[in-house]
Write a structure and sequence with these properties.
197 residues; hypothetical protein PF0899 fold; four-stranded mixed sheet; 5 helices; 8% strand
Length: 197
């Protein structure tokens, strides 16, 4: 899981850099157009208009900066969504090897500890049923009769259904989403503020 999260973070960082570079190219073009327009107007008017045009250029640049920032945020949101869709698909095809078994055991232990003494019922997908059954041996929990529609991981519920602890791969990704989005936005902000940016 950590390797997948690291790959997703690396992909997000590369995508973020591309977004920033595109935005800067667009900004440079827009600023050049604004400068050319301002220069033509200044040449046609007297000194009093020169000051007004300077202010107009600053306002135009501020509007462009806002538009670029909005586009950056929209693009970052779009590729984060694409990354999460790809990550969810990747979860489905994880090899059920020793590393996966160790991750599943730790997730199951955490979920059962969170459930406490509530006669927990554990749900997993059909692919992981045998593995979860093996991990549950002697744990005082039962395996749900029906498989859960999750890519990997488990969902633990109390027998009365009042308590649910979702430790599915999808839930883990969702918990990481805000942190990744914040990291990406911080990266965009730092790149924008860098000298010469």
């Amino acid at each position: 899981m950590e390797r997948i999260f690291a790959q997703i973070r690396d992909t997000a960082a590369r995508e973020a850099e591309q977004v920033v570079q595109r935005a800067h190219r667009v900004a440079d073009r827009e600023k050049e157009h604004a400068r050319e327009d301002a220069a033509r107007q200044i040449a046609a008017h007297h000194d009093a208009l020169e000051r007004e045009l300077k202010q107009a250029e600053e306002r135009a640049n501020a509007r462009i900066a806002v538009d670029i920032r909005r586009d950056e945020l929209a693009q970052s949101q779009e590729f984060i969504e694409k990354l999460f869709i790809a990550a969810r698909e990747r979860l489905r095809s994880l090899p059920r090897d020793a590393r996966y078994k160790a991750w599943l055991a730790s997730v199951l232990t955490r979920a059962l500890a969170g459930a406490g003494n509530v006669s927990p019922v554990v749900s997993c997908n059909a692919q992981d049923e045998a593995l979860v059954k093996e991990l549950l041996a002697g744990a005082g929990a039962t395996l749900a009769a029906e498989p859960a529609p999750i890519a990997c991981g488990v969902v633990v519920r109390s027998a009365d259904g009042r308590l649910a602890i979702d430790c599915s791969g999808e839930a883990e990704l969702e918990r990481a989403r805000d942190e990744w989005r914040d990291d990406l936005l911080r990266q965009l902000h730092v790149t924008d503020a860098a000298p010469g940016a």
